[in-house]
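G., the chain you wanted modeled:
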Amino acid sequence: MVEKGKIVLLLLILLSATIIGYVSTTRFEGLTTQKYEISVVDALNRSVVINKPPSRIVSTAPSITELLFALGLGNNVVGVTDYCDWPPQVLELREEGKIESIGGYWNPNVEKIVNLNPDLVFVSAGIESHLQLVEQLESLNLTVVVLYPGKSISEIYKNIRLIAKITNRYENGEELIRIITNKIESIFAKTRECGNKPSVLFVLWLNPVYTCGNETYLSEIIHLAGGRNLFEDLTGWPTVSVEEVVRRKPDVILIAASMMPQSPEKILEDLKNDPSWNSTPAVKNNKVFFLIGQGENIFLRPSIRIADAVELLAAILHPEIFGGITVPTVIGDNYVNYLPSNTSITHAP
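Predicted structure as tokens:
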């Protein structure tokens, strides 16, 4: 009777070991295939079912790539655009051949995406060419999830939660949101008390002047940093005249300069020599700042580093409440050096 009991116990132990072995061998980056079926509603209100852990992910936008890596999914990413360059690990993996290019941001290559045999492709609802990809890729039996365009900080949080749910990283997603929120709130707690709210013109293109209006994440950044969007009475991404800019008298001008045909130094020289531009308080008082490289990307990519953008702009607008920090005219890859916290948000712990 005792021997029979031992045999039963031994069988139970072996069975347990077999089950544990099965779960461990089906893991991928902390995910398990055991009863894996997740249903989500994406940004286009489509119901998408994910029936296995996505081990091969394609990103069609730099902002999406940053979110994926921030959630610890870097080793699952097999395809990105030519413009995806953050975090630095993205470039390292591309050099090692572990991540392939799928083409441009505006014109991702369908054939290249298909050849990567992805489990999941993330696209943005804000780009028309991305929306055209959905039907094409789904007709080829690929799973596509459309993320929110990031018109607001709340949409960035929606994207984090959507990706985290799909990849079974809920806790990572909530922790990442907490980190971003805490950083933004700590800055806003200081800037909201400032009586002076400098007017800010954010320039995406100079000729003609292309800027941001209300209902954009850039306008939110300006508000949280303790400024006032010069064109907050407009909506979206308007084109405005130089005459209207001069009439409104911007206190501070930020120029996204990476794609400009001239260098920041030449642009500044031209502004100072222009009878219209040089009449603005921003040009008169040397409050024109140029964003290039990663210094530009933290503003233009609706992703985790939006908190860095709030902090950097707050330091520009209100140096007096951040220990008199001095921000240079041209802000590039070393932008972290000018953050009062001297710390950039990169990923969830």
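The chain is about 40% helix and 15% strand.

Shout if anything looks off.
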